[in-house]
Design brief:
Length: 477
C-alpha cells in the first residue's frame, strides 16, 4: 500500500475508521483518520484494508460480492450504510445477512410483500428473507429434492423471528391449505418458547434449544409440518449465570397461575426455590399486570428492584397465552394439570438437601429434616411413595457380574455431594422428558398422510461466549 491511499484502519470503539496512509513501516502502517486530522493510527499490515475512493457516497450495495474491495471493514461499512437506510438485508451471493433492527419496519413483511417476491430470482428485487424462502421452494421444484435453510447467528440476532417469517412465507405463498398449517404453527409457538426459552445476559427471550422445522409438500402444496429439537440446555434447570433466568415456564407458573392452582401445587415466590433463587428472580411485567400479581409470588429482589421490562414479554399474560395454547393443540384439562404438576415437582425437587447419615458406617446420606416438606411435595406431585423417592436419591443400585452369584443386586449409599448430583440429574431428566412430550404434542397438530418433499428450516440455538460456558453452550458454539 502506498502513501495517500484510502484505507480502513482498526479502531477500539468504532471497529474501523476511514483514513489515508501517512507512513509505511516494515511491519506496520500509520493511518491518519479523515475525521481526526493530525492524529494517526498505527496497525499491522493485516489489519489495514483498502477502501473504495467512492466510499463517501454512502451508497448501499445489495450484494456484498459487488463491493470494489470485499474485506471485513468494507463489508461492515456497507452493512452500516444499509442499516441507516432501514435496509436490514444484504446478500453475499445466495447467503442472506440479516441485521436485527429492534423495531418494526412498516410493510416489510406484509401480504403485499409476500406476493411481490413470489417467483422472483435472487437479485431481481432488494434483498429479503422472503427471497431466500422463495428460492428454496423454486429449487425444490426444479431439482425435485427437499431443501434446507440454515438460520445461524449470535444470541439475540433475530434467528427465531427470521424462522417465523420464513415459515410464514412458505405457508402463505403456496397452496390453499397453507393458512391452517401456519395458524397451527403460530398457536404452538408460545408453548415451545415457554418451555425452551429463557432470559440470558444478551437476550430476554433466547432459545435454549435448536429446532428443525419441516414444511411438507405434496404436489407443491403445503400438507403438514414436523418439528425436531436438539441440544436443550438441560443444565439451565439447575443453575444459571448471574442476571439470567431459568426457563420462562417456571416464572410464569409463579406469577400467572390462578391462586387455586398455585395453592394446589404449593407454588410461592421464585426466591424460595433452589433452582431459581441463585439467579434473577424478577418477573417480566407490563403496567397492567402488576396489579394482578399476588404478593406471595414476589421475591425480595422483585420488591426492591421492580419488574423486568420487555415489550414482548409479560409473565402474567404469557401464562394465560401458554395455557390457551395447550387448549388449541388439543391438550385436555387432566393432561394440562399433569404438566403443571411436573413443573412444580422439579422446583420442589431442587429444595431437597442432604446430610451425612451418622448411623451408616458406609458414609451414606439422608434427606435433611428441613427438606422433608419439599420431598413430600415432590413425591405427591410425581405420584411416587415418599420412601421410594428418598431411597433413589440417596442410593444407587449395582448388579454384580463377577464374584458371588451373577446378577446379585447391591445397593450402594451415596455421599451428600453424590446425592445432590443425583437430585440434579433427576430434575434435568424429568424436564427433558417433559419437553420431549410437549414437542410430540405439538407435532400432532400438523398431521400429513403423504409427502413428496419438504423444506426444512434449521434454527440453530444462539452462540454465546463467556469466561465460563456450560457444556450445552460449548456444543452450540
Amino acid at each position: 500500500m502506498d502513501d495517500g491511499k484510502l484505507v480502513w484502519a482498526p479502531h477500539s470503539t468504532d471497529g474501523f475508521r476511514l483514513g489515508r496512509i501517512v507512513d509505511v513501516g516494515s511491519d506496520t502502517l500509520s493511518v491518519e483518520p479523515l475525521n481526526a486530522p493530525g492524529t494517526a493510527i498505527t496497525a499491522p499490515y493485516n489489519r489495514v484494508f483498502p477502501a473504495d475512493e467512492d466510499i463517501a457516497s454512502n451508497k448501499c450495495v445489495d450484494d456484498n460480492c459487488a463491493l470494489m474491495y470485499l474485506n471485513e471493514a468494507t463489508l461492515l461499512n456497507n452493512l452500516r450504510v444499509c442499516y441507516k437506510n432501514d435496509q436490514i438485508y444484504t446478500y453475499v451471493a445466495n447467503i442472506l445477512i440479516a441485521l436485527n433492527p429492534y423495531f418494526n419496519i412498516p410493510k416489510l413483511y406484509s401480504k403485499e410483500t409476500i406476493d411481490k417476491y413470489q417467483g422472483k430470482s435472487l437479485g431481481v428485487l432488494t434483498p429479503h428473507i422472503f427471497a431466500i424462502a422463495d428460492k428454496s421452494f423454486r429449487d425444490m421444484k426444479t431439482y425435485k429434492q427437499s431443501q434446507c435453510i440454515i438460520v445461524s447467528g449470535e444470541s439475540g440476532a433475530g434467528k427465531t423471528e427470521s424462522t417465523k417469517y420464513i415459515l410464514r412465507y412458505l405457508c402463505e405463498a403456496h397452496g390453499c391449505k397453507a393458512g391452517t398449517i401456519e395458524q397451527r404453527i403460530v398457536e404452538a409457538n408460545p408453548l415451545l418458547e415457554a418451555f425452551g426459552n429463557a432470559k440470558t445476559v444478551r437476550n430476554n427471550n433466547s432459545s435454549r434449544f435448536g429446532k428443525f422445522v419441516e414444511i411438507h409438500y405434496d404436489k407443491y402444496t403445503v400438507v403438514g409440518a414436523f418439528v425436531s429439537h436438539y441440544l436443550l440446555e438441560k443444565s439451565r434447570v439447575c443453575r444459571q449465570n448471574p442476571e439470567e433466568r431459568n426457563f420462562h415456564v417456571f416464572y410464569r407458573l409463579c406469577a400467572g397461575a390462578p391462586d387455586q392452582l398455585r395453592k394446589s401445587l404449593n407454588i410461592t415466590a421464585p426466591s424460595t426455590y433452589h433452582y431459581l433463587k441463585n439467579c434473577c428472580t424478577r418477573f417480566f411485567l407490563s403496567v397492567s399486570s402488576r396489579s394482578q400479581l399476588s404478593q406471595t409470588a414476589c421475591s425480595d429482589e422483585f420488591l426492591k428492584d421492580g419488574s423486568l421490562d420487555d415489550p414482548l414479554l409479560d409473565d402474567v399474560k404469557d401464562f394465560k397465552i401458554m395455557d390457551e395454547a395447550m387448549n388449541k393443540i388439543g391438550i385436555d384439562k387432566d393432561e394440562k394439570m399433569n404438566i403443571y404438576r411436573i413443573i412444580a415437582a422439579v422446583l420442589h425437587l431442587g429444595n431437597i438437601s442432604f446430610d451425612e447419615n451418622s448411623t451408616d458406617a458406609r458414609g451414606g446420606s439422608v434427606v435433611t429434616g428441613q427438606s422433608h416438606k419439599a420431598a413430600s411435595y415432590t413425591s405427591q406431585l410425581l405420584g411416587l411413595p415418599l420412601d421410594d423417592l428418598t431411597e433413589c436419591l440417596t442410593s444407587r443400585v449395582m448388579q454384580a457380574t463377577k464374584g458371588g452369584v451373577k446378577g446379585t443386586v447391591i445397593k450402594v449409599p451415596l455421599k451428600t455431594d453424590q446425592a445432590s448430583s443425583a437430585r440434579d440429574a433427576l430434575a434435568k431428566a424429568i424436564y427433558s422428558r417433559l419437553f420431549d412430550h410437549i414437542v410430540s404434542r405439538v407435532n400432532q397438530c400438523f398431521p400429513y398422510k403423504t409427502s413428496t418433499a419438504y423444506i426444512g428450516v434449521l434454527d440453530i440455538a444462539g452462540f454465546e461466549y463467556f469466561q465460563e460456558n456450560s457444556f450445552e453452550q460449548f456444543c452450540i458454539n
